[in-house]
Amino acid sequence: KIRAAGKIPAVIYGHGTAMYVGNTNDDTVSVIDTITGNVVQTISTQPWTGSKVGYQPDSIDVVDNHLLVSLGRANAIEVFALGTSAQDPVREIGLLPTDYYPSGVFTDSSGDIVVANRRGIDARAPFVTSSQGENTTTVSSHGTHSTTASLTRFAWPSDTTIKADTAK
Fold first, then answer.
1. 93 touches 63 (CB < 8 A)
2. Residue 40 is inside which H or E element, if any?
C-alpha cells in the first residue's frame, strides 16, 4: 500500500526501490520507498523559491544517478544528483533550458537527453482566419492554440556545465 504523495500527482517513475511522483499542484516530487510504501522525502522543484507561479513538474527520468524533472512552467529540466537509496537526500545541480512547456524527458539509446515540448516554439501553425459576425473586421493571425510542439535532443552536459549555465 502506497501512502499519499503531494497535490495532483501527474507523473510516476519507478527506479530501483524508489518511486518518484511529480506533484504538479505543489511543485514537488515525492520519493516513495517501494518496500515500505512510505514517502521518505519530498523534493522541492522550485528553482526560484520567491516566485508565486507554479512550475508544474510533469515528467521524470533517472539516468546516471541523476533525477531529471521537466518543469513545464519554467521551460527547463531541473537536474538533481541522487544518493544511493531513496532515503538519501538529493542535491540540486541546476537547470537545462528547453523550448516552451516541456512535458516529457527521457534518454535515448545513445545517452542523449530527449525533451518533448508541448508548446515548442509557440504559435507557428498556419494562420487562422476569424470573423466575429456582422459589422466586424475579419482577421488572420496565429491563434493561441495554434502552437507547434517540438522535440529537442542534446548530449548530456557535465554537472559543472549545468551549474554554470543555470546562473546564466
1. no
2. strand 39-44
